[in-house]
Amino acid sequence: MATISSRIRRLNRSTLGKLVVVAIMMFGFGYALVPVYRQICEVLGINVITQKGEFVAAPVNSQIDKTRTIVVELDGNSQGPWRFRPTTRSIEVHPGELATVTYEVVNTQGRAVKAQAIPSYAPQVVTPHFKKVECFCFQEQTLQANEARQMPVVFFIDPALPREVKNITLSYTFFEIGGAIKAAAAPATGAVVK
């Protein structure tokens, strides 16, 4: 019996020793994994958190076609009680480059109005290539009496635009919808009858 229990103890100590060695190796591997990962990423040039040198250059958008310049002419038409116009008449952009233009609207009436803008493009071949990221034309606009507002359009022109297109006209027609907005009724005053 004594030999069996001493053999089990020896076996338990041996197993415990192996488990301790495995646990230390796992801890060492986990600890060494961070610098090894950083070295691999630096060698491969992926997931680099910091750059060596004095400054970090801004990333380059490879989708911008710097070999072409497109002139975008801006136009505004209004059908209603306001003045509506672009704040600039034209802008030069490269295909793929993000650009912002601003339109100004002034409600000349003494009442609030709802309006909507509808864009159009010339030449017509441009339509699928003119990509708006942000535009006041995406939703109805409510203008208070005598309100003036600057409204941005953020866009880019798809680099797949045919090369023969050198000029684009972006035109908006701004028109009133739904008629005049009624003012909220004032609460009635008077005696309460019980």
TrEMBL record:
| Superkingdom as given in the UniProt entry | Bacteria
Transmembrane segments in this chain: where? 16-37
Output the NCBIfam families linked to this UniProt entry. PRK05089.1 (NF003465)
- Cited function: Exerts its effect at some terminal stage of cytochrome c oxidase synthesis, probably by being involved in the insertion of the copper B into subunit I.
- This protein's name: Cytochrome c oxidase assembly protein CtaG
Q: Its membrane topology, per UniProt?
A: Single-pass type II membrane protein
Gene Ontology MF term list:
copper ion binding
- What's in the GO CC field? plasma membrane
* Subcellular locations according to the entry: Cell inner membrane
What is stated as this protein's family in its record?
Belongs to the COX11/CtaG family.
Sorted keywords for this record are:
Copper, Membrane, Signal-anchor, Transmembrane, Transmembrane helix
